[in-house]
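Justification of computing resources. Each target in the renewal requires a structure prediction run like the one illustrated here; the chain below, 420 residues long, is used simply to show the kind of job we budget for.
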Amino acid sequence: MSNSDNNLEKILFTPGNKIYFIGIGGISMCGLAELAKHQGMNVFGSDPNKSNRTYYLESLGIKVNYQQVSENIEELKPDAVIYTLAIPENNPERVAAKKLGIPEIERAAYLGMINRMFDKSINIAGTNGKTTTTAMCSLILIEAGLDPTVHLGAELKQFKTTVHAGSNRNLMVSEACEFGRSFLHFYSTTATVLNLDHDHVDVFPTMDDVIEVFADFVALLEPNSYLVIPAFDKNISGMLNSAYKKNPNIKGNLNIITFGYPEDRFEGREPDFCCEDLSYKDAYPHFTLSYRGEHFADFELKIPGKFNVDNAMAAIACAYLNGADPKSAVRALANFTGAEGRFTEAGFYNGARIIADYAHHPDSVKLTIEAAQNFPHNKLYAIFQPITYSRAKGLAEGFAESLAYAENPILTEVYDDRET
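Resulting structure tokens:
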């Protein structure tokens, strides 16, 4: 680590220093601001929109400015400024920080610096399922008494927020997003790639681009690190081969742990964590999990869909490799009803069950519809709001095919907070 990196870490993590978050109301930024507060920093920030998240931060004693003007920085003179990719260089607060020589750190780089503070770091990546898997893994570790620090991309009922500040510097768990190549800032002792699909078409025009950025992520691993991967994803082998070319030191020196089903094979062998006897009770999965041919535990999930069995296996693997026991995994998952916006049962309207899900990729849309079909119903309406124009255009055919699985698909206007 260079002297400049050491100096920056000293600025960011010395209790009492003033850290200013531009766009503090964002789902990730809100959590990072809360973690900074827990670490003893004096935290401030700005966001043009009032929200439940900004009100929550204010309840913690964090000053939130609802106008992004240069005076906020000039008067406070913070020790460092954190910003997101959505904040342009000509933002008045960034301009003021640059003029005053105040260090500016992009959100993902800041998160990467946080996870380097821990002895062990679990980063959970993949096109779909990151938030749910990160939540599951975190709750298993907490149930096992390991008390990790956690950073999520959604609120979790058990936390009442998006983060959990652990009591030690032993272990951190975070979801690792590929958008903007953010996860390339992260340090992992255990990494997971849940699945590989074509997404973020504005950044990754082709599937090969997606495979390459995940290969970059895996290539950052050090020898003897854990890599947890599905035995059933056809793109994983190509991604791994590319990672080995980028970092030859890890070829043959990674602890690769696979998860999947009895019919799956990875490099000719059965999955390490294997789901057996999968059945559904009232739409919820029940299954037996084996580990390298031996019985591990029996699980009853409180979230529907086979895709959540995949997520659960990855979460269990990551937690087990970092010290959690099978009984803790069983207890934690028996009480897990999902993260906010991930197949959330929002209630009933005129007798109709309302389910909200963040599904924003054709595959996740299809899987969400299939999971909903397991509930008793007469008619199923899928109301879909595409997120970003580039994704809606680039994946239009896939969305059409996925929505066809619902009897009554309804399309709303595109939601886009980062493209113009």
